[in-house]
Amino acid sequence: MSTSAITEREIRSQPEAWARAAEAAATGGKVLGRAGERVLVLGCGTSAFVAESIASLRERAGLGETDAGYASEWEPTRRYDRVVVISRSGTTSEVLEALAAVPAGTVKAAVVGVAGTPVAEAADEVLVLDFADEESVVQTRFPTSVLVLARTAFGEDVGAAVAQATDALAAALPVDPARFSHFVFLGRSWGYGLAQEAALKVREAAQAWSESYPALDYRHGPVAVAGPESLVTLFGDLDTTLVDDVERTGATVLHQTLDPLVQLVQAQRLAVELATSRGLDADAPRHLTRSVVLG
After folding, report:
1. Residue-wise pLDDT tens digits, 147-172
2. How far apart are CA 114 and CA 25, in angstroms?
3. Helices 260-277 & 159-170, crossing angle to 10 degrees?
4. What is the pLDDT of residue 264?
């Protein structure tokens, strides 16, 4: 199999996985919380960024107070009706530790890619997205499928996003990532979680300098290091004044009129293409494993 072939295949499988996730939302979405429940969503790495986006989406839908956090840092100091953990492998040590710390009387729920795993067994309610599970170390279709299911469960129609993803995957990327050495991703609201995930993909797959910020906060310091070798990607609605300020640095600004989740797919593709241009294999990222299991 050629370099990065597994990751590339899983990136391209996302429209099909998203359609299945949307279908599963009618029943599976209940794991993310009933209307009115106060919910905490936890994860590690990619799953923590997904948790941030879900929290923003759920509150925006008016379904109840929703917080997000890192399973590795969480302490049970606030009261919740439900704690939801996200773990593709279902084996992440810090996620298991977080579930064990959930107070009695609080619903423990889990979204996993593999049934019968320790995380799944430790939860009261489980949603298994085995059709979105992955061989790759670098996550792509599992986190985006979780977000499609969440958006559908929260009342959104994701049909246009599925169609856009299909079209985007059939076309070339709008920029050549090899032209740049510095990658910045900016997002607002639930798009900030996506921006963080996009930057992580570039670090994981291509070992490249990447950053992520809330979009309007970028001018409050981080823009100081932008320059001609910087590619700054904006997720979500376009803020023309921000674009003007970034372009004054000599940086290239990339914004596509696509669903933010499709923009994340494009960032995944960019990370893999950048890895290839650097002679790296996105299927074998340095120092990483599919799951962090502590001894």
Report:
1. 999 999 999 999 999 999 999 999 99
2. 17
3. 20
4. 98
Domain ranges of the chain: 5-155, 172-277
Asked whether 266 and 168 are in contact (CB, 8 A), the reply is: yes
> What number of H helices and E strands is found in the chain?
10, 9
Question: 79: how many CB neighbours lie within 10 A of its CB?
Answer: 10
CATH of 5-155, one of 1.10.540.10, 2.60.40.1220, 3.40.50.10490, 3.30.70.580: 3.40.50.10490
Asked whether the predicted pLDDT for residue 196 surpasses 80, the reply is yes
What architecture is domain 172-277?
3-Layer(aba) Sandwich (3.40)
On the 0-12 / 13-18 / 19+ scale of CB atoms within 10 A, 131 is middle
Closest among 271, 141, 140, 290 to 207, alpha carbons compared = 271
